[in-house]
Amino acid sequence: MANKISHSCLVSKIAITLSIVSLLLCCGVFLRTDLMLNELYSRDIKLSDKMTSKHDMNDGHRFDKDHHSERTFEKQETKQTKDVFTRKVRDVTTVVNSTINDDLLSKKIHQVLGKAVASLQGGKYWIPVPGPPGSQGKPGPRGPRGRMGKSGRRGKRGPRGFPGKIGLPGSRGMAGPKGPKGDRGTSLARPTALISPTHLIVNESQSAILHCSSSGYPRPDVVWSKINGTLPRKRAVVDSWQTDIKHVTPNDSGIYQCKASNLLGSTQTTAKLQVNFHPRLTLDKRPIYRMGSNDIRLPMCYVIGHPTPKVMWSRVFGILPKGRSAMKDGQLTILKANQNDSGTYVCKAENLLGSVVGSIMVNVIDLPVFVVKPTSFYTAQRGTTAVLNCTAKGNPQPVISWRKDNGVLPVGRYEVKDGSLIIRNVKQIDSGVFVCTATSAGVSHSHENI
Ligand SMILES: *[C@@H]1O[C@H](CO)[C@@H](O)[C@H](O)[C@H]1NC(C)=O
Ligand SMILES: *[C@@H]1O[C@H](CO)[C@@H](O)[C@H](O)[C@H]1NC(C)=O
Ligand SMILES: *[C@@H]1O[C@H](CO)[C@@H](O)[C@H](O)[C@H]1NC(C)=O
Ligand SMILES: *[C@@H]1O[C@H](CO)[C@@H](O)[C@H](O)[C@H]1NC(C)=O
Ligand SMILES: *[C@@H]1O[C@H](CO)[C@@H](O)[C@H](O)[C@H]1NC(C)=O
Ligand SMILES: *[C@@H]1O[C@H](CO)[C@@H](O)[C@H](O)[C@H]1NC(C)=O
User: Fold this and answer.
1) Ig-like domain location, by residue (predicted)?
2) Which tens digits make up the pLDDT trace of 349-359?
3) Residue 288 near residue 299 (C-beta atoms within 8 A)
4) Which of 291, 296, 315, 340 to mutate to test the pocket of ligand 5 (most atoms within 8 A of CB)?
């Protein structure tokens, strides 16, 4: 502990001593520097005087020689200075010589200062402090202009400018060549109308188109119409130059008129429309029963269609009786018919669009034949039962019926049994004419008796 304190005391003593020595050194140096600067100044004036005298001689060689001699002089001076300096260093504090060479002097100053500073730096109490920054120097002169740079990319196209003013009209050109003579102007004309085709045939459900070309001045109004009928509104497309009827029906057949009119009058023209259509047939289909050996007239087979259909009769099985059948206006007649003529008969209507058939059943029946004919004259006692026999046969089996001419059968006293008329309790009033009728499918045969 005591050792440490004594050590720090020694250090501070050395430091104080060093500080005093360096202070004295500095004072001496500044003094000497000032003296040397004065001498330098005086020497500079002397040198300049020498230089002026050398320049007056106007001889470069001499100047060089002189320069050389001056150098030599300088060298000698330097040697002397060195010697002096050597002495000086020995006793800096007491000796100051103003004749020392300036270079040497500065060197010396540096050396002495450097040593002093080094010795200070070697100590622990040297604190370097940077000086304040110098003031900014004046800006340098402007440099030469640089080379031109590369050209940049092409910019976007600018907006469209305002249109310029309209220029003055040009001078009038030469007159052109004379044109061809123009058409004669239209004069007033009565209307005309021409329809085509004048006769149109179409199949049903097709379209019918009639054209009407009209002329006249002023341009005439065209009106279409149907004679004794009306244009089908829903299916007809009508304009001034044509009528187009879609999906025609047989009713559309007829005369169509195109009428053109203007202020000078009117004219009309017509065309015929014919609609071909499938045949249609009407036939009473109820079966017929006719007695044999008579002529049988079959019902009428009504047929329409366009073109007018051909009508034919035939039998489903077999053929029409040769030589005994006749047809007139779609009606068939079987002459002197017999049982073999019974059967189904067919009426067929046909045109270019197709055919249609209708059929009818024909029954030829035999005339009933009386097997037992009642006696022509019969007399019965009053109060007795009278029996009047009557039987018949036929195909089909005939039905026997009785009646009394100019009167009625006695109510409650008669009956018909197996074709025989039985009258009980015969009275005077029962006298008269009794008729037996055999009926077979509507064909009857009567026989009278009293
Ligand atoms: C300084 O040096 C010169 C020669 O260079 C000498 O003549 C002169 O006596 C010296 N002065 C002193 C004070 O030593
Ligand atoms: C009408 O129909 C028939 C049969 O199909 C045919 O031959 C004819 O050419 C048609 N007519 C028209 C005008 O189409
Ligand atoms: C139109 O009908 C009238 C009378 O009903 C008749 O005289 C005339 O012939 C008919 N015209 C046509 C084209 O059918
Ligand atoms: C044709 O006209 C008649 C009457 O004139 C009518 O009864 C019939 O329905 C019409 N047919 C069609 C297909 O329009
Ligand atoms: C009916 O046909 C049959 C057989 O074909 C024939 O024998 C008979 O003579 C015919 N009757 C008449 C009335 O022609
Ligand atoms: C009617 O027929 C019956 C038998 O069928 C017969 O006995 C009777 O005499 C007949 N009458 C006459 C009037 O012929």
Assistant:
1) 191-276, 279-363, 368-450
2) 999 999 999 99
3) yes
4) 340
